[in-house]
Hints:
This protein is α/β, with parallel strands linked by helices.
Amino acid sequence: MAEKHFKYVVLGGGVAAGYAAREFAKQGVKPGELAIISKEAVAPYERPALSKAYLFPEGAARLPGFHVCVGSGGERLPPEWYAEKGIELILNTEIVKADLASKTLTSASGASFKYDILIIATGSTVIRLSDFGVQGADSKNIFYLREIDDADKLVEAIKAKKNGKAVIVGGGYIGLELSAVMKINNFDVTMVYPEPWCMPRLFTAGIAAFYEGYYAKKGVKIIKGTVAVGFDSDANGEAVKLKDGRVLDADIVVVGVGGRPLTKLFKGQVEEEKGGIKTDGFFRTNVPDVYAVGDVATFPMKLYNEMRRVEHVDHARKSAEQAVKAIKASEEGKTIDEYDYLPYFYSRSFDLSWQFYGDNVGDTVLFGDSDPASPKPKFGSYWIKDGKIVGAFLESGTPDENKAIAKVARIQTPVESLDQLTKEGLTFACKI
Length: 432
Ligand code: FAD
């Protein structure tokens, strides 16, 4: 089998890989120096589109429309862009063995790739119900969503089961976005999750009450406090058995119960922490010439003086850029500033759109109009720790308002009274 050698290899062809390629091009990369190896069949794209516009019944997003870097307002990089720059896109290629000592990657078909510098950008994979041994969980009516192939399968099922019934298992990002988009596709939608409210890792009870009320208003049914324990499929679809004894009929089941970083290839070869590959503030691992970015990296979050792993698109983009800048700087004997990241998450569903910045710890205040029955609800929340705002959430903010909440979370504005903060609400952030 042929062996290829590159100065730089990015392993993984997702969000981080695309933003890394753009940064390499900006910093200067010669034709043939950089390769991106991906098991996906397409050039890097903005993954968040898959649970949103990709599934719309009309005007759906399709490639090449959402290749990186359009998600952050940047230039779109179609496959031709890589060809023009002499960046090799090695697609449909799964790496099954990584030997960091000999700097060699081996693909499922036996091809070898050697590198001088490796950036690990393998992202995450979905957690499957079959991983927990849930009975019948390998049925063809059960869908997961991570890659474009998964989204295409779901699109086909939506077409085939027109106006059918959907059960969405999980109340996180994917559960909320998928429930909305299935409803927009005119499905009868039921969400099932075990927690007392949706998105419990981020939302307070007050924030969640708005979304649950809004979804109910849109006709989405929500069953909380129980889980799916088994599935029986026949020609008519799926019977979803819940732990509390109820049984739900479904044509389509979509499961969104979390992800797991893809670090398996490197086990025992690189230091890990908190489930990810441990890096410094330049995304260098403990192995010389090996970097890790995006979902797989556990890095020092300078702002909170703590090692963290972040599974969000904004960090995937920025960590990739930081790693490439660090690589290029070290080649020139220069240094760059350490990564200083302010966590930023967002989601969109129906006509709603929220943003969150900072850390969701400490006391909380809810402000604004969070009545799901309001014609134009607009509300937010602050998290306050040690007398300072550390986190801020806003639904339906303007770009300037979102900038304002990001600023208070970044500078950790001191707060004198929680009552005052509740009363002032968004005005507090906007006047800083
Ligand atoms: P990925 O983008 O997942 O890329 C990893 C790549 O590596 C993939 O191409 C994969 O095929 C490839 N790969 C893995 N293993 C191998 C191997 N062995 N050989 C070859 N290739 C391999 N975040 C937000 O902040 N907001 C959102 O609204 C949002 N929506 C999302 C919606 C969906 C449906 C999903 C799945 C995620 C969403 N996210 C969102 C999270 C965000 O997309 C991820 O955090 C981001 O994509 C991580 O980037 P990454 O480059 O680390 O990994």
